[in-house]
Amino acid sequence: MAKPDYIYAAARIRAKELSCFSTSTLEQLMACKSDEECLRLLGEKGWGDGSARQTPESLLEQERNKTWDQLRELVEDMHIFDVFLYANDYHNLKAAIKENYAPSHGADIYNPNGTIDPTLLRQAVESHDFSLLPPAMADAAEEALSTLRETGDGQLCDIILDHAALRAVADAGKASGSELLAFYAEHTVACADIKIAVRCQRTGKSLAFVQRALVPCDTLDVSQLAQASVESFDAICDYLARTDYEGAVEALSHSASAFERWCDNRLIQKIQPQKYETSSIGPLAAWLLARENEIKTVRILLSGKRNGLSDDAIRERLREMYV
Predict the structure, then answer these.
(1) How far apart are alpha carbons 62 and 278 in whole angstroms?
(2) What is the spatial distance between Cα 189 and Cα 195, in angstroms, rounded to a whole number?
(3) Contacts 24+ apart (CB under 8 A), 300-307
(4) What are the sequence ranges of the domains in the chain?
(5) Side-chain half-sphere exposure of 46, counting CA atoms within 13 A
(6) What is the rounded CA–CA span in Å between residue 125 and residue 175?
(7) Overall pTM surpassing 0.70 (yes/no)
(8) CA-CA distances (angstroms) from residue 299 to 92, 186, 206, 302?
(9) DSSP state of 131
(10) In the chain, which residue ranges form alpha helices assigned H by DSSP?
(11) Is it true that 1-47+54-75+281-323 and 81-176 share their CATH fold?
(12) Measured in whole angstroms, how far is the alpha carbon of residue 293 from the centre of its chain?
């Protein structure tokens, strides 16, 4: 089967990249005195719907929807982008299982931006008929629901579903045939494994627990990472210093948020060569990631302004831009 031709779509994305935020745009936003002033400036730059009563969350959600709508105009088969949505599917599955176990009312706990309708997930859990779901997800759902009902251990339920979500991302990246999507999947799983190892070390989890939580990937030896996790934080850093994630050590030593920033910046740096590609899915996927990074950065900036953080405190949380 011939590969799709993305030449036209990539050319259109080149034009859209011109409207992406640069570092100078972030500085304009930083110069605003309040989050309300930031929202006005964002509106002038075409963000949101132009409403004077726009809230930060509605504006950011509209920008995310715009991004996906623009991709749908350019790409006939959107399944190539499912790798970016599996986390939302498993979040919704987790919500459905916990709602079934301990019903809650009034809160909107589902994310509409997934590959599976949340209503179907709720139906599968309520009927205990997981044949409605993809096989790998069905197995994880069965195990997670049974575990929660038998033990009442919500954390173990989370571990099962988070592990399955990362495996879905890893498998999709490898099956995509795209170098960029494969890198994204590997990066996502490896960074998640590092966070899990550090969290388990700080909470004193057993080796068996860590091994259950970590997801195999190509750029980390999860056996060594798990062993380091039950030894000490320094052991984790010593191991990472011998891997592709050496740069994470300094960030981890600073704070969890610094590590999150390092992960996001590493991804943006690695995808920047896609600006010069012309015929693959890479430029479109890179633009999607760039927009998600942009939206996340604006959210951080707006939150900082709203909570009265200093400019220095906000700047140290901002991500690198794609352009």
Answers:
(1) 28
(2) 10
(3) 301/26, 301/29, 301/30, 301/38, 302/35, 302/38, 302/39, 302/56, 303/35, 303/56, 305/32, 305/34, 305/35, 305/38, 306/34, 306/35, 306/56
(4) 1-47+54-75+281-323, 81-176, 181-277
(5) 6
(6) 28
(7) yes
(8) 22, 26, 36, 5
(9) G
(10) 7-17, 23-30, 35-44, 56-74, 86-101, 118-127, 135-151, 154-175, 179-203, 207-213, 222-231, 233-240, 248-254, 256-271, 282-306, 311-315
(11) no
(12) 10
Dist. CA 265–CA 129, nearest whole Å: 41
For the segment 145-202, what is each residue's pLDDT rounded down to a tens digit?
999 999 999 999 999 999 999 999 999 999 999 999 999 999 999 999 999 999 999 9
> Class of the 81-176 domain?
mainly alpha
- How many residues are listed for the chain in this entry? 323
Closest among 108, 114, 29 to 295, alpha carbons compared: 29
Whether 85 contacts 115, CB under 8 Å: yes
Angle at which helices 35-44 and 282-306 cross, to 10°: 150
- For residue 201, give every residue at least 6 positions away whose Cβ sits within 8 Å of its Cβ, in sequence order, or none: 228, 229, 230, 232, 233, 236
The residue assigned the tokens 């990074």 is 293
CB atoms within 10 A of CB 151: 11
Domain with residues 1-47+54-75+281-323, CATH architecture:
Orthogonal Bundle (1.10)
Q: Give the DSSP letter string of 44-56.
A: HTT-TT--TT--H
The pLDDT tens digits for 66-113 are 999 999 999 999 999 999 999 999 999 999 999 998 887 545 789 989
Question: If 0-12 CB within 10 Å is exposed, 13-18 middle and 19+ buried, where does residue 199 land?
Answer: middle
